[in-house]
Amino acid sequence: GFGHRVYKVRDPRADVLSAAAARMYQADGDMALYNLARSVEQDAIRLLEEHKPGRNLQTNVEFYTALLLHGLELSTALFSPTFAIGRVAGWTAHAFEQLAEGRLIRPKSEYTGPMGRSWVALAER
Fold first, then answer.
1. Helix H or strand E encompassing 18
2. Is 109 helix (H, G, I), strand (E, B) or coil?
3. CATH of domain 1-74
4. Catalytic residues, which ones?
5. φ, ψ (nearest 5 deg) of residue 2
6. Which has the closest alpha carbon to 16: 80, 57, 61?
7. Cα 67 vs. chain centroid, distance in angstroms?
8. Could you state, in order of their start, the residue ranges of all structural domains in the chain?
9. Nearest residue to 109 (alpha-carbon basis) of 120, 95, 123
10. Is the separation of the CB atoms in 58 and 7 below 8 Å?
11. How much is the pLDDT for 6?
C-alpha cells in the first residue's frame, strides 16, 4: 500500500518489513519477486507524485507485509484477515475508550457507503 493517515512520509515500518523481506527472499535464494516489488514501489511512488502532486503518498506497512505473507506461502485470501487480526486489540481498545469517554476518537472517520446491505455467503455468490 501507499499513503497513510498519520505518516506523511514513508512509513518507518515499511523499512523494517522491506529488510525482513529481503532477508527472507535472499535466504530462499530467489530475489526476483523482491526485486520486482522494489521496482514496482519506485514506479508507484513516481506515478503517485505525478497524478497526486503534493500528497507525498509513500510506501506503507501493507506493501511489504503482502510480500512477506506471499513468501510464507499464505493464501492471498488470508492476507486481509491476517492483517486485521493484528489490529483487533487496538480496535477493541478504541471502542472501550470511546464508550468510556462518550466521544469518537476519529470523528473524521465516517462510513459513507451503501446502507441496508445483506451478507451473502461466498458459496452463494
1. helix 12-28
2. coil
3. 1.10.230.10
4. 4, 62
5. -135, 140
6. 61
7. 11
8. 1-74, 75-106
9. 95
10. yes
11. 74
Look up residue 35 and give its three cell numbers: 526485486
Cβ contacts of 1-6, under 8 Å, gap ≥ 24: 1/59, 1/60, 1/61, 1/62, 1/63, 2/44, 2/45, 2/48, 2/57, 2/58, 2/59, 2/60, 2/63, 3/48, 3/55, 3/57, 3/58, 3/60, 4/58, 4/60, 4/61
Instruction: For the beta carbon of residue 98, count every other beta carbon within 10 angstroms.
Output: 13
Which of 30, 4, 25 has its CA nearest to residue 69? 25
Grid cell, residue 53, equals 502532486
Q: What are 59's strand-pairing partners?
A: 2
Using CA of residue 41, residue 32, residue 73, residue 29, what is the dihedral sign? negative
What's this model's pTM, rounded to 2 decimal places?
A: 0.70
Q: How far apart are CA 122 and CA 53, in angstroms?
A: 39
pLDDT score for 77: 95
The yes-or-no verdict on residue 36 having pLDDT over 80 is yes
